[in-house]
Design a protein that fits this description.
By secondary structure, this protein is α/β, with parallel strands linked by helices. The chain has helices at residues 77-87, 106-118, 173-176, 213-228, 234-237, and strands at residues 2-8, 19-25, 29-31, 35-37, 54-55, 69-73, 92-97, 122-125, 133-135, 144-148, 151-155, 157-160, 164-166, 200-202.
Length: 239
């Protein structure tokens, strides 16, 4: 049988100790651990954001009150969606990004810029590092000031939307020989969602592939089917 060792952290346990669980499966193991926000470290800087009120897409919905101003760092789908949503709540929103939706065609980016500008969302083109973010002088509550192209942008709340990373650590994957994709950092899989180890499959965001909810659900179904059933029809077992 296949076996993976997993370290579980109980948020309600004040001991802060990981619980080690050995997972065994006769037929196959499907890893679908998802992804998490990338750490607030831009351009490889090790500077700190201590004292600055910032959120990611995971905890932005836990706000108990709306800020008056918000700065969004990142022009991907998450940054753009949340920027527009908060702007429609009446918040003064600024987006800092080299380009909006950079993975799409240039026409998509330019069209979105026009829409956002009409809606009152300020777009500042540029790339920043953590060293460009500081606590706003004379302000309380974690207000920030960001230097972009020698221009200072101040805000009450900072939303970091600088990408997502596959959750692949804490399962001893390296020890059992599960290979990771060097480009995405996710679990490397083939068209049948098989990893480099027989009987171990991966699906969804932990593969580092297209990180969409509907696609993750589809991959989960494919991986579960392939883990349990024999490959009788390669065309039907693939993605």
């Amino acid at each position: 049988s296949n076996s993976i060792q997993v370290a579980l952290t109980d948020n309600d346990d004040n001991s802060n100790e990981n619980k080690i669980v050995q997972v065994h499966a006769k037929d196959g193991i499907v890893i679908a651990t998802g992804a998490s926000p990338k750490e607030p470290v831009l351009d490889g800087s090790s500077s700190s954001l201590e004292g600055i009120h910032y959120v990611t897409y995971e905890d932005v919905f836990e706000l108990d009150k709306l800020p008056k101003t918000m700065t969004v760092v990142g022009g991907g789908p998450i940054g753009c969606e949340l920027a527009q949503a908060f702007s429609r709540f009446g918040i003064d929103v600024t987006i800092i990004a080299e380009q909006l939706l950079p993975r799409n065609e240039p026409e998509v980016s330019s069209t979105l810029e026009e829409v956002f500008t009409k809606e009152g969302i300020r777009i500042v083109k540029g790339r920043i590092g953590v060293e460009d973010i500081a606590v706003a002088p004379g302000k309380e509550g974690g207000h920030h000031v960001i230097n972009v192209n020698n221009n200072n942008i101040e805000g009450e709340l900072l939303l970091l939307a600088v990408g997502r990373k596959p959750v692949v650590h804490g399962m001893n994957l390296e020890q059992i020989g599960v290979e990771l994709n060097s480009q995405t950092g996710g679990i490397a899989v083939d068209d049948q969602l098989r990893s480099s180890i027989k009987g171990v499959y991966a699906a969804g965001d932990c593969t580092g592939d297209q990180q969409f909810t509907h696609y993750a659900g589809y991959q989960g179904a494919v991986a579960a089917r392939n883990a349990l059933l024999p490959f009788t029809d390669p065309g039907n077992c693939g993605r």
